[in-house]
Amino acid sequence: MASLRKLAYLTCGDWHAAEDAVANALVKLYPRWRKLERPDLYVKTMVYRAAIDETRRPWRRERSASHAMPEIALRDPAGATDERLRLKAALDGVPPRQRAAVILRHYLGLSLEDTAQVLGCNLGTAKSQTSRGLAKLRELMAAEKIDLSEGELSHAVA
Amino acid sequence: MRLHEVVETVTADEPPLGRSIEIDEIVSAGRRAERRRKGGFAMAGAAALVAVVAGGAFALPAHDDTTTATTAVGTAGPTAVTSPPFSFTFGAYDAGRLHVQNPTDVSAAYQVATITVDGAPSGAYASLTVYQPGAFNEASLTNATTVTVDGQAVLQATLLADGKPRTDADRGDKAIAWQYATGAWAVVKSLSTDADNPSFTDLTALIAGFKPNTSPAPAVLPFTMAYLPAGYTAVDVAEHSLPGWDSITGSNGTVYGGAIFARNAPATGLSDPYLDLPGSFTITVSSLAATGQKPPPIDASHKCTNADAATSCTYSIVTGTTLLSVTGNLPIAEKTQVAKSIKLADLTDETTWTPATKLLHP
Where are the transmembrane segments (chain B) (predicted)? Predict the structure, then answer.
């Protein structure tokens, strides 16, 4: 559940929208369960598509200040919040489809074939989306003086 | 930094799960969706079935714009007579441990009442749908057998999932149907996890108690609307429940009312109340307070809550603890215009509610 919500969040950038996306996907999954060969891929596909849809909706970008609680300034001596915001900005700078490809392939550990199935594209496109996403993420992180490790990504574009 | 660390850092502010992701709710919603699918809603049945014509003791009024209701009583092939549109023509009654509630949903083709069952398993529900002559496709009960109850021919069937054997969880799903007038069927459907609770005997006990009211009660709704997209009309309205197929699950006091609008709605060949009519949209007015639900989780007061395509998402307006939703296959601009043209009545005073035939108030 948590990984699905993270996939949705990293795709659409909003925890509430991510939660909606996961809940809707799971509701749709239940009655189809017996007919699906790979329900795990199906639900990831549904979550991904729902999250992409959320990013396209103008009302998702609406923000009303009227009900907002005032933010309280807190100390952040370790700079954790600052780092998180910089990393978030870098991830957000990667186009949503490429970002999803990277997350599916290298965070959730899907094979290239499964990644292509979730993204609804062919193998070559999945490969190029993953590759471009990684390159873009590395570029944006480099601009923030953060180095994205090569280690676990060595198989990334294989 | 590794990608895992990037993701874990970025998602470190992950809030606790909110109102949406509750396993029980998901399973419940999923089962409901499955039952909808299983209910068929196919306009044409897959297998032929002998239609048994039985002489009923009365006839339920049919709908007509011009005439008022009368009750035809007879023993040999009574025919349906007329009543105003969107009016309820029968009322609550009891039969053993089954209790038919007042009908809450009505269209030109049927009326729906929920049934409560004393001692039923958790999550079980049942409904009585009374169809106008010719509206119900009895062949949709694909595995029905015919039995005779007090001289009345009755179809009884277990409900299949896409024509396949039922799962253990659905082994209690069953239906009975009888003709209360020539060509006019009353159908009871019961969804339960217990094969014998309620039993066919419990269900057939409902037949004798079914009587029409002498004076139909018009359905009233807690809103009026100033805008309706061209070509659309109300095809199904519900008082204190969700409209259409959803009415069979009842409202638990959380729904004030709703209506389905469509350009075309089938009046014959039905196997269930309307569900997902092509090109239709639905308005519902419900209470968030009664269930303790949180408003849709977004800062703005207007939003689409459904993660489907934009044309099928839900446009919602939250006013205090009241949720007005417009959902269905309508462009979002039209949906917005419809929602903003709606004027709510005093939800606590039904005398201020509007007869369903007068919903449109420019």
Answer: 41-60
- A30 vs B34: CB contact, 8 Å cut-off? yes
Domains of chain B in start order, with CATH, are 48-217 (3.40.1000), 220-358 (3.30.200.100)
Give chain A positions within 8 Å (CB) of B166: none
pLDDT tens digits along B91-125: 999 999 999 999 999 999 999 999 999 988 776 78
Contact predicate B256/B285, CB 8 Å: yes
Q: What's the complex ipTM?
A: 0.73
Q: How far is A45 from chain B (nearest CA, A)?
A: 13
Structural domain A84-149, CATH architecture = Orthogonal Bundle (1.10)
Whole-number percent of chain A with pLDDT over 90 = 0
**pTM listed for this prediction:** 0.57
Within its chain, how far is the Cα of A17 from the centroid? 12
d(CA B242, CA B328): 14
Number of H helices, E strands in chain A: 7, 0
Looking at beta carbons, which residues of chain B come within 8 Å of A5? 14, 17, 21
What's the whole-number mean pLDDT along residues A148-156? 51
- The distance of A41 to chain B (nearest Cα, Å) reads 18
Alpha-carbon distance of B156 to B151, in angstroms, equals 15
